[in-house]
From TrEMBL:
Highest taxon, organism lineage: Bacteria
Cofactor(s) annotated in UniProt: [4Fe-4S] cluster
Domain Aconitase/3-isopropylmalate dehydratase large subunit alpha/beta/alpha intervals: 77-563
Domain Aconitase A/isopropylmalate dehydratase small subunit swivel as annotated: residue spans: 693-820
BP GO annotations: tricarboxylic acid cycle
Catalytic activity reported: citrate = D-threo-isocitrate; (2S,3R)-3-hydroxybutane-1,2,3-tricarboxylate = 2-methyl-cis-aconitate + H2O
Cross-referenced InterPro entries: AcnA_IRP_Swivel (IPR044137), Acnase/IPM_dHydase_lsu_aba_1/3 (IPR015931), Acoase/IPM_deHydtase_lsu_aba (IPR001030), Aconitase/3IPM_dehydase_swvl (IPR015928), Aconitase/IRP2 (IPR006249), Aconitase_4Fe-4S_BS (IPR018136), Aconitase_4Fe-4S_dom (IPR036008), AconitaseA/IPMdHydase_ssu_swvl (IPR000573)
Taxonomic source organism: Chelatococcus reniformis
Family of the protein in this entry: Belongs to the aconitase/IPM isomerase family.
Lineage: Bacteria, Pseudomonadati, Pseudomonadota, Alphaproteobacteria, Hyphomicrobiales
UniProt protein name: Aconitate hydratase
Length: 894
C-alpha cells in the first residue's frame, strides 16, 4: 500500500549494492516530528509502522503526532492507534483452532455467496507444532522415539488437518513436530530483526514485528523484534489484514547496571525482574530495558527476560538492537546480506544502541544492579512468588501452613507400594528441564550438563521417586548437548531426551508412575515439581502435584538429586558421594568460565545452518501423512479432534442489533487471579468430567483422551472444559474444587457445563463475577470462546489481564469492571441473584459507564455502576457484529 507520507519520510537505503525503500525517522524528525530520537526504541518501531501505513483512515496524521507527543505526556493520553504486524506466529494448541476458524470462514463465505479463497492469510504466518508431545516415557534411551510414536498416534487427525491447511492456504507455513518450541525456532531462525517485502517492484525494509498466539511470543523481544501474545481471535484478524487496535502504551524503562556475580544464572535474574515488575504494576504497559548492564548481556539472557513478560504482566519486555544483536544474527546463521541490512537500517533509523546512547524518555523507571541478583526459585504456584534458594525450605514449610493447611504433618512419610522407598510432603516427583524460557539459553543448559557430569563423577544419582525429563527447545540444543558429551552425562541422572517441544510447563508432564500417584492421592501428599519453565499455576503442571517451583536447569538437576524441597540446597548436602562423604551443591556447581568454554567450542554457525536447512520438511512420520479436501475442508462428523464450530451458522450480511442483558443468572463467583488455565485448562481430561463423558460417549477410551490442549479443534470438548479446571473454586459452592455451580431458582448443584446448557434451554442469559487480574496467564482464546458458547453475555470483575479482555470482546462477550472499592463481595452476592445490564444498543460507547441492576432473592434491588471495557471504536464494531471474525467475514464478503 502507498502511504500518504505527511512527514516526507520515505527514503532510500543502499546496503551492499542493493537498494531498499524505508520510512526514515530522521527525515520525519526534520519534517515536523521534533526530538523523536529521544523516544523509547519500542515506540520508534510503532512510529515507523504508522508512517508506513498512513492512509488518512485507519492511520491519520494525528496518530503519528500523538506518538511524538509521548515525549511530553509519557503515554497518558490513551489514544487509540492501528498497528499492523509484519507477521503472525502460532503454536499448534492455539493454531489448530485458528485454522479451524479459517476453514469455517471459508464455508461461511460459500454460504454468503462469496469466494471462499478470499479467506487467506494476507501476512506471513508460521505455525510451529510444539505443544503436543507428552512425557509418557522418561529416563531411558527409548524415551524420545516412544514419545514421538505416541504423539503421532494421538494427533493423527490434527496433523492431517494442519497438512491440509499447509496446502490449502497461501502465506502459511507449518514447522512439523519434533523441531522445537515456537519461540526458540522464532529466535534461532524465523525472526529477521529487519523484515523486507517486495511492493510494486521495490524492496521495502522495516522492523520485524509480530503477534503470536502464545503469550511468550515476547521472547523474541530479546532480539529487538517487537511482538507480543494475542488470542487466536486477534491473530486471525491480523492474518486477514485487519489492523490491531491498541492504545499508545506507557513505556516503563528498566535500567540494568553492573554484572551478574559468579554462579548466578539468567533464571535467577528473570525471577528477580519478574517480582520487581509485578510489584511495580505494568499490566498493559511496554517495558524497555536499557543501561550499561546490557553491554555484557547475551541475546539469550535478554530473550529469557523478554520471554517472561506475561509473568510480570507487561505487553512486552523490549531490548534495542546493538552489537550483541548483530553477533547473534551472524552466529545463528542468518544470511550475510540480512545481517548487513539490520545493522545499516538500525543505524540509519537511530535504532542502534551503543554505550554512548542517551537514555530515552520513559513513563517511569526502575533500576536493578545485576550484582545484587541471588540464586532464586519461584513457587509454590505463581511465577512472581520468588524465594531465595536459601529460603526455599522455610518457604515451603510456610506454605504448608498457609496454603496447604498441613503444617502438623510436614515430617510424615508414607510407604510406596512395591518400592523400597517412602514419600512425604515436599518430595520432588517431577524434575523437568523444559520450556522456551530456559532451554533457549546455552549458559543454563550447558550449566545443567556440567553439573550432572560433576554429580555423576561423585557417585550421586537422582532419587528414585523423581520423574526426570529433558525437552530442549530446538534441535540445535540437542545437537550441542550430544556433541559436547553432556547429554551422556545428563542421561546418567535420568535426564534423557524426551522430545523437542513444550512439555511439563504446558501441563504435558505425562502421568506419574502408578504407585507414586497412588501414594500421593491415598495420603493427600503435597508433592512438588521443580521445572525450568515460566508457568507454575496450580492444577497446570500435573494433577498429582500441588507445589510447583520454577528454577534454572542446573537447579532442576540439583533438586532431582536432593529429592525434596525440605532440603536446604544452600547449606545441606545433596547426598552422599561414592567416597562416603557428603556432597554439597557448591562442590558440583560449574564455573562461568567452564560454561563459556563449552559454549565457544560447541555452538557454531554451521550447527544452526545445518539444523534449519530444511526446517519445513519434517521427518518421515510427517511426510507420510495423507490429506484430503480442496479449497474447503472435508469435515468428518465422527472426529473428536476437529469439528466445524457453530459461530457462523445462520450468519447474515448485516448483524442483528445487540440486545440488552435482562434477568441474567450468575454462572460463577470467582476470587482474584483467575487464570486462563482455570477458565480453559490445557492439561488432562478426567473421565468423570463433562468433556470425559462426551469422549466416552463417542467411543474414545480413557487411554486415548489426550488432553484439552490437543482437542481445541473440537468445540464440543472445549465448551465442556470451560471453567472445568480441577482447582478452580466457584464461591457459589464454598469448599468445593472444580467446575461446579448451582442452578437457580431450583438450587441444584451441577457441573458448570450442565447448568449452562439448562439455562440455554430455558432462554436465560448468564453473567460471571470475579475479582482482580481476571484472565492472567496464557493467551488462550478458548477461555473466551468457551465463555461465549456457554451463553455468558458479560464478565464483571475488578480488573482484567490485557489479552483475555480483548479476547472476550473478540467473541462478543461484554467485559465490565466495578468502580474502585466495589466488588461482588461488597455487594453481598451469593449467586442466587438476577442481573440486568441495559444500554448495549446503538448508543454504547467505549469505556462508557453502564449500570447493572441486581435483584436479590428478598426483592431488594441494587443499582451498580460498571465501566464498559470495550476500549476502542474498532472493538465496539467487533462487539456489535458478534465478534471479530464475524466482522472480518462480513467485510470480506462485501
Amino acid at each position: 500500500m502507498t502511504s500518504l507520507d505527511s512527514f516526507k519520510s520515505r527514503q532510500t537505503l543502499d546496503v551492499g549494492g542493493k537498494s531498499y525503500a524505508y520510512y526514515s525517522l530522521k527525515a520525519a524528525e526534520a519534517n515536523g516530528l521534533p526530538d523523536i530520537s529521544r523516544l523509547p526504541f519500542a515506540l520508534k518501531v510503532l512510529l515507523e509502522n504508522l508512517l508506513r501505513f498512513e492512509d488518512g483512515r485507519s492511520v491519520k496524521k494525528d496518530d503519528i503526532l500523538a506518538i511524538a507527543a509521548f515525549l511530553k505526556n509519557r503515554g497518558a493520553d490513551e489514544r487509540e492507534i492501528a498497528f499492523r504486524p509484519a507477521r503472525v506466529l502460532m503454536q499448534d494448541f492455539t493454531g489448530v483452532p485458528a485454522v479451524v476458524d479459517l476453514a469455517a470462514m471459508r464455508d461461511a463465505m460459500t454460504s454468503l455467496g462469496a469466494d471462499p479463497e478470499k479467506i487467506n492469510p494476507l501476512v506471513p504466518v508460521d505455525l510451529v507444532i510444539d505443544h503436543s508431545v507428552i512425557v509418557d516415557e522418561f529416563g531411558t534411551p527409548r524415551a524420545f522415539g516412544d514419545n514421538v510414536k505416541l504423539e503421532y498416534e494421538r494427533n493423527g487427525e490434527r496433523y492431517r488437518f494442519l497438512r491440509w491447511g499447509q496446502e490449502a492456504f497461501d502465506n502459511f507455513r507449518v514447522v512439523p513436530p519434533g523441531t522445537g518450541i515456537c519461540h526458540q525456532v522464532n529466535l534461532e531462525y524465523l525472526a529477521q530483526t529487519v523484515w523486507t517485502r517486495n511492493e510494486n517492484g521495490q524492496e521495502v525494509a522495516y522492523p520485524d514485528t509480530l503477534v503470536g498466539t502464545d503469550s511468550h511470543t515476547t521472547m523474541v523481544n530479546g532480539l529487538a523484534v517487537l511482538g507480543w501474545g494475542v488470542g487466536g481471535i486477534e491473530a486471525e484478524a491480523a492474518m486477514l489484514g485487519q489492523p490491531l487496535s491498541m492504545l499508545i502504551p506507557e513505556v516503563v524503562g528498566f535500567k540494568l547496571t553492573g554484572k551478574l556475580r559468579e554462579g548466578m544464572t539468567a533464571t535467577d535474574l528473570v525471577l528477580t525482574v519478574t517480582q520487581m515488575l509485578r510489584k511495580k504494576g505494568v499490566v498493559g504497559k511496554f517495558v524497555e530495558f536499557y543501561g550499561p548492564g546490557l553491554d555484557g548481556m547475551t541475546i539469550e539472557d535478554r530473550a529469557t527476560i523478554g520471554n517472561m513478560a506475561p509473568e510480570y504482566g507487561a505487553t512486552c519486555g523490549f531490548f534495542p538492537i546493538d552489537q550483541a544483536t548483530i553477533a547473534y544474527l551472524t552466529k545463528s546463521g542468518r544470511a550475510d546480506d540480512r545481517v548487513a541490512l539490520v545493522e545499516a537500517y538500525a543505524k540509519a533509523q537511530d535504532m542502534f544502541r551503543t554505550a554512548a546512547t542517551p537514555d530515552p524518555v520513559f513513563t517511569d523507571v526502575l533500576e536493578l544492579d545485576l550484582n545484587d541478583v541471588e540464586p532464586s526459585l519461584a513457587g509454590p504456584k505463581r511465577p512472581q512468588d520468588r524465594v531465595l534458594l536459601s529460603g526455599a525450605k522455610s518457604g515451603f514449610a510456610a506454605s504448608m501452613e498457609s496454603e496447604f493447611k498441613k503444617a502438623a504433618e510436614i515430617a510424615k512419610r508414607w510407604k510406596v507400594d512395591g518400592k523400597n522407598f517412602d514419600l512425604g510432603h515436599g518430595d520432588v516427583v517431577i524434575a523437568a528441564i523444559t520450556s522456551c524460557t530456559n532451554t533457549s539459553n546455552p549458559s543454563v543448559m550447558i550449566g545443567a550438563g556440567l553439573l550432572a557430569r560433576n554429580a555423576a563423577a561423585k557417585g550421586l544419582a537422582s532419587k528414585p521417586w523423581v520423574k526426570t525429563s529433558l525437552a530442549p527447545g530446538s534441535q540445535v540444543v540437542g545437537e550441542y548437548l550430544a556433541a559436547s558429551g553432556l547429554q551422556a552425562e545428563l542421561d546418567k541422572l535420568g535426564f534423557n531426551l524426551v522430545g523437542f517441544g513444550c512439555t511439563t510447563c504446558i501441563g504435558n508432564s505425562g502421568p506419574l508412575p502408578a504407585e507414586i500417584s497412588k501414594a500421593i492421592n491415598d495420603n493427600d501428599i503435597v508433592a512438588a515439581a521443580v521445572l525450568s519453565g515460566n508457568r507454575n499455576f496450580e492444577g497446570r503442571v500435573n494433577p498429582d502435584v500441588r507445589a510447583n517451583y520454577l528454577a534454572s536447569p542446573p537447579l532442576v538437576v540439583a533438586y532431582a538429586l536432593a529429592g525434596s524441597l525440605q532440603v536446604d540446597l544452600s547449606t545441606e548436602p545433596l547426598g552422599t558421594g561414592s567416597d562416603g562423604k557428603p556432597v554439597y551443591l557448591s562442590d558440583i556447581w560449574p564455573s562461568s568460565a567452564e560454561v563459556q568454554a563449552f559454549i565457544d567450542k560447541n555452538i557454531t554457525q554451521a550447527l544452526f545452518r545445518t539444523r534449519y536447512a530444511d526446517v519445513f520438511a519434517g521427518d518421515d512420520n510427517w511426510k507420510q501423512i495423507s490429506i484430503s479436501g480442496g479449497k474447503t475442508y472435508g469435515w468428518d462428523d465422527k472426529s473428536t479432534y476437529v469439528q466445524n464450530p457453530p459461530y457462523f451458522s445462520g450468519i447474515s450480511m448485516t448483524p442483528k442489533p445487540v440486545a440488552d442483558v435482562v434477568g441474567a443468572r450468575v454462572l460463577g463467583l470467582f476470587l482474584d487471579s483467575i487464570t486462563t488455565d482455570h477458565i480453559s485448562p490445557a492439561g488432562s481430561i478426567k473421565a468423570a468430567s463433562p468433556a470425559g463423558k462426551y469422549l466416552l460417549d463417542n467411543g474414545v477410551p480413557v487411554a486415548d483422551f489426550n488432553q484439552y490442549g490437543t482437542r481445541r479443534g473440537n468445540h464440543e470438548v472445549m465448551m465442556r472444559g470451560t471453567f472445568a479446571n480441577i482447582r478452580i473454586k466457584n464461591q457459589m459452592v464454598p469448599g468445593v474444587e472444580g467446575g461446579v455451580t448451582v442452578h437457580y431458582p431450583g438450587g441444584e448443584q451441577l457441573s458448570i457445563y450442565d447448568a449452562a446448557m439448562r439455562y440455554q434451554a430455558e432462554g436465560v442469559p448468564l453473567v460471571v463475577f470475579a475479582g482482580k487480574e481476571y484472565g492472567t496467564g496464557s493467551s488462550r482464546d478458548w477461555a473466551a470462546k468457551g465463555t461465549n458458547l456457554l451463553g455468558v453475555r458479560a464478565v464483571i470483575t475488578q480488573s482484567f489481564e490485557r489479552i483475555h479482555r480483548s479476547n472476550l470482546v473478540g467473541m462478543g462477550v461484554l467485559p465490565l469492571v466495578f468502580e474502585n472499592g466495589t466488588s461482588w463481595q461488597t455487594l453481598g452476592l451469593k449467586g442466587d441473584e438476577t442481573v440486568s445490564i441495559r444500554g448495549l444498543g446503538e448508543s454504547l460507547k467505549p469505556r462508557q459507564t453502564l449500570e447493572a441492576e441486581i435483584t436479590y432473592t428478598d426483592g431488594k434491588v441494587a443499582k451498580v455502576p460498571l465501566i464498559c471495557r470495550i476500549d476502542t471504536l474498532d472493538e465496539l464494531e467487533y462487539f456489535r457484529n458478534g465478534g471479530i471474525l464475524h466482522y472480518v467475514l462480513r467485510q470480506l464478503a462485501a
